[in-house]
Amino acid sequence: MAIEDDVLVVGGGIAGATAALAALETDPDARVRLVTHRQSTLRHASGLIDVLGYTPAGEGPLADPFDALEALPTGHPYERVGTDAVREALAFFDRVVDGAYEGGHTDRNALVPTYGGTVKPTARYPASTAPGLASDTRETLLVGFETLPDFDAPLAARHLEAAGVPFDARGVTLSFPGIRRDDAKITRYAHLLDRDEVVDADSGERSARDALAASVDTHLEDESRVGFPAILGDDRVETVREELAEALGVDVFEVPMGPPSLPGMRLEGLLYDALEDAGVRLTSGVPVVDYETTAETAGGTTDRIDHVVVDRNGAEVPHRADQYVLATGGLVGKGVDSNRERVYEPIFDCHVSHPADRYDWFVDDVFGDQPYARFGLEVDRDLRPLAADGVPEFSNLSAAGAVLGGYDFAAEKSGSGVSLATGYVAGTRAAEVGGR
Amino acid sequence: MSDAEQPIDGGAPDEGDDEFEPIQVFPEAEEMDLRPGADDCYKCSTCDTNCPVAAVDDEFPGPKFQGPEQWRLKRQDDHDIDDSVMKCSNCMRCDSACPSSVPLSQMHNTARGEYVEQTMSKLSREYLRNRMLANYRRFAPLGATFPRTANFVLGLSITKWLGEKTLGITSERELPAFATETFREWWEKRGGNAASKRRAQDAREKRGGNAASKRRAQDAREKRGDNAASKRRGESNQPSEDKRIAYFHGCYSNYNTPEVGKALVRVYERFGYEVLVPDQHCSGTPMFANGMLEDARRAAETNVAELADAIENGADIIASCSSCSMSIRQEYPELFDFEGTEDVSANTWDAVEYLRVHEDLEAELEGTSVGAEFDDFVYHAPCHSRNQGLNGQTIEVMDAIDGIDVHDVGDSCSGISGTYGWKAENYETSMKIGEEMFEHMADADARTGLTECPTCSMQMEHGTGYEITHTLEVLEAALVGDSSETDG
């Protein structure tokens, strides 16, 4: 007896979660399940929602990503779904995160300072980063911590100034009250502030938020905003930020960090809360390892997936649905994998176009135009993966997110936007085609 | 390959042939070689962000250190295993977190075993206490023989005080009460397997010949056609073998909560399953967590042999405790290689999961109700359920029953992690981890807890004062009703 659903989404990142939510919004009576194995790459991600920061040719930073969308080459995921779908997906995202993100007031890219002191063009950004935008001209103090070497505040400040931001920036490095280990986990910082635990600070025992504000206060000069690495709490980041701002009498913001990233984890939290509220059935921690097609094909050479097989520590559990969405990620998320012979998609073995010789998969310049960055599935306009002959692999499978090929999200700064737009389209379509 | 070197394919001896031929560059490993796992770690720290201990305890360096880094360090002769490994609670969240499939809990288990073996004094209070906690199964029969006396003595504050002072077992917690009749005593009294066979047959007849269900069971079996057990099963002609399970009750539902075991038996018999109750030892979970690998090995050897026999007799293995099933499914094959270990692992199931896959459980539950006996629940998915992909299951199944509403408390860890939260030195950490779960329980519109893990249930009760029920008890109420009168 298989576990039965109408729509089955494989993969639990932005694309998968968006697909599941969009499917349920399209058909509130549908039974939608999301199966996810390992944790998604959101934990590595900045938590920013980029649409397009640079064109595939490298022009940018783009002031308005929508101006450039129409000119994208055939096969680019945005070209497949169309500009309107990108807009709809962003509006959908704004509804889902309900005020936790800003940037929806304009089509234009915002410039968010990063922990390296660079400036990243992005379409949506967490509310906690909003007072830090680089287009804002207020003087800025960046605060780093001795035990958090990923963020060198003085260096980041100098880097920002060198990048030509329209304000003075200064950085200081302090010790974080209550943290003694050199390698305390970011969740430890967040937990201390979230729970406002009592810590042993220079000034005696006091609450973590108080102690942090006090130690920053002595370094504050004329600056009217203070930036911290993105560790200001987990569930209660807005409360922490408000309290620090009140105690310091200036605006407080977070600077997005590298992996592991709390803003990425918080976004994951928002998406999973939304999944639960919507009634999406969630199966996590186990992989989809195989599939079976139905005996009768839908006509022509295109097969129909009957069910997929989920592995539970060796026991094989069949899951059947009418429509399937593949959102397993790219090379990092392992939705696309490779060995010495070939690049492949591990679950359905959908066609991944790539040169036969593996020395043609990359170029020597690390930051050059890497062919492997574009490896992924080719899809039709319904996002159905296409076989080498251009025919859909399966009649009831669509794909979304980084498993798609034809774009270099790292160079273009388009990762989250593509996941959102294709997830939205794939989920909506699955519910429309499937239905009950 | 080094970054600086240009790889030369043509350098391989069989020039012209593209096939990759690995060569052995390290001597044959004498002990478990975890190098491939350690090499798979690319330091993304996802595991660290999932560690409930690292978020509340400054002293704990996190799973990335405990796993791959410690594994490398301990291979140096001058490096002892860091004692922080004993602060790991063995929740195993890091396992399912890792995007690179590094076998973190396997690394923790082996490191902890070596630490206890090589570094911990066998005369220390800590060792004795841990050995006792890990071997609960050895002490429980005594308590179960004189349950009233034992419960009385264990409940005395002087006993708890002594426990804390002499053994380092926290006096903050109430020790679990022993049942006046163990599950196995009840099972024998009820007529054992013979009685179960009869009841299962009756149930099958009552279910109308049950052709559809038989076919489903057959289909499921054929699916696993490559497995030796089902081939053996195919040779047998006894009709009752169509539906047969072997119940791994574990220690807690035998000695402390036999009502869970009884519920399992009655629910499975209702679906026409004949139940076997093989001889068994502790699953090993508390032993792994305390680094008592030799104790675990002995227990596992018995369990694998007995359970493999049951599989040979046409049964699948069913557990009602999520840590027991986790241990048999994942830790046995990771740590031991007795004959049949893999087969036992692959044929062991969670009790509710099995019914979902082999029966149409949700359809059977449609329209059932549980009357006044149960109301709404707050549900906590144990970490060890989560790791088996079962975290959403209870909510989905309970949704089908009329009149109860189940609220999920979210993905926080309860913090007790078996014997971990019983140790005086871990009590505070354990309660700090549990804080989020307690808050979510208090926020929800229900005053009864629901979970599948015995120690999670202790923690839920300890932190909120709620009564805690096992999912199988609710299924029993919905599907069987109150059968205690006819059932002894």
Automatic annotation (TrEMBL), chain A:
The keyword Zinc does not apply. It comes from the Archaea. GO terms for cellular component: glycerol-3-phosphate dehydrogenase (FAD) complex. Its EC number is 1.1.5.3. GO terms for molecular function: glycerol-3-phosphate dehydrogenase (quinone) activity. SUPFAM superfamilies: FAD/NAD(P)-binding domain (SSF51905). The keyword Flavoprotein applies. Residues 6-418 form the FAD-dependent oxidoreductase 2 FAD-binding domain. Keywords: Flavoprotein, FMN, Oxidoreductase. This is Glycerol-3-phosphate dehydrogenase subunit GlpB. It comes from Natrarchaeobius halalkaliphilus. The gene is glpB.
From TrEMBL, chain B:
Residues 77-110 form the 4Fe-4S ferredoxin-type domain. Pfam families: CCG, Fer4_8. Residues 199-208, 216-226 have a biased composition (Basic and acidic residues). The keyword DNA damage does not apply. The keyword Repeat applies. Residues 12-21 have a biased composition (Acidic residues). Residues 1-21, 190-240 are annotated as: Disordered. GO terms for molecular function: 4 iron, 4 sulfur cluster binding; metal ion binding; oxidoreductase activity. Keywords: 4Fe-4S, Iron, Iron-sulfur, Metal-binding, Repeat. This is Anaerobic glycerol-3-phosphate dehydrogenase subunit C. It comes from Natrarchaeobius halalkaliphilus.
